[in-house]
């Protein structure tokens, strides 16, 4: 993607991670983008505006009432100018203002006025990030189309350990590129995505399952929806927020998933199976809760569940594109290539779930896109970014 014509407005709020934002500006300038920085008053206590002015080669805005560089209403001018509006770091305070529509300084005023896509990189104490009020604000902003990257987990400036670290500059710039780069349209295509973990009942209160959160499947569904596709999500158990604007079909067990796919799959153009079906189910399902037996061992007899991806492959219609996933812990490429052929797939997304940032329940992934023609590795990136890569590859296959 060419950055030379892109106008980026970067909002910097008051947090120790503000120093990382200088690298964001530097990276964007090296790519050829034009960068306009708005700093809150608190942000100037961490990094001098002169730093951002030098790196961006543009006047840094810090005050709603400062004399503008051009004769214009400054917050309106920057709001209209932006191809992308980024806030990094984003404190709990700015998230609350954005959610409530409060405009009491230059940054909150400008972001309220912009029609550009908005990307937010939160950075704050773990307690603040996990607070019910903050999470409610995040949900509100997501529903309005604001995109988030991070926060990451680790040792924070306050000494606590947990979620709250701002994502690294290179990851933020990569996420910006994913938002800005032109996308091939999926108008008129019917896309089915499976997501989440199936549950195989032992008794009325217990079940066998896995750690899949549904985040990857939901990211693909959102990306396909945003490209104009008519999206159906066959959803097993998930912990991630269900995307808006898509049709949902609920299932519980792997057998339920298979029955739903028999109905839904034949009428789809693209089928992307990102769910994690259980491989085994109990042979005997108890009608009442299993009780302890005074120290005696409990022996469970298990049998294989149906291979849903293989069944869908056997039902494959002319003109359909089938995508599968291979979440592996060893010999990843070898196992994935075997599944590609066995399940009659056009593309398989393979990842080693033992690698940091690539496992279940996180917002990032590391994967390889494998077809009969070859393999394309993808680095650590957000699941939304990987979703876009998968859809790009699907459209390449269909052309």
Please tell me about this protein's structure.
The protein has 399 residues and is an alpha/beta fold. It has two domains: 7-180, Flavin prenyltransferase-like (Rossmann fold, 3-Layer(aba) Sandwich); 190-398, Rossmann fold (3-Layer(aba) Sandwich), CATH 3.40.50. It has helices at 18-31, 49-56, 74-81, 92-100, 106-113, 126-130, 132-143, 169-180, 215-226, 254-264, 308-314, 332-342, 383-398; strands at 7-12, 34-39, 84-90, 118-122, 147-148, 152-155, 161-165, 190-195, 200-203, 206-208, 230-235, 247-250, 270-273, 280-282, 302-304, 321-328, 347-352, 364-370, 375-382. The strands form five sheets. Strands 12-11-8-13-16-17-18-19 form an eight-stranded mixed β-sheet, with helices on both faces. A five-stranded parallel β-sheet has the order 2-1-3-4-5, sandwiched between helices. Strand 6 and strand 7 form a beta hairpin. The longest helix is centred in the C-terminal third of the chain and has 16 residues, at 383-398. The protein starts with 6 loop residues before the first strand and ends with a helix.
Could you give the topology of this structure?
Blueprint: E1 7-12, H1 18-31, E2 34-39, H2 49-56, H3 74-81, E3 84-90, H4 92-100, H5 106-113, E4 118-122, H6 126-130, H7 132-143, E5 147-148, E6 152-155, E7 161-165, H8 169-180, E8 190-195, E9 200-203, E10 206-208, H9 215-226, E11 230-235, E12 247-250, H10 254-264, E13 270-273, E14 280-282, E15 302-304, H11 308-314, E16 321-328, H12 332-342, E17 347-352, E18 364-370, E19 375-382, H13 383-398
Parallel strand pairs: 1-2, 1-3, 3-4, 4-5, 8-11, 8-13, 11-12, 13-16, 16-17
Antiparallel strand pairs: 6-7, 9-10, 14-15, 17-18, 18-19
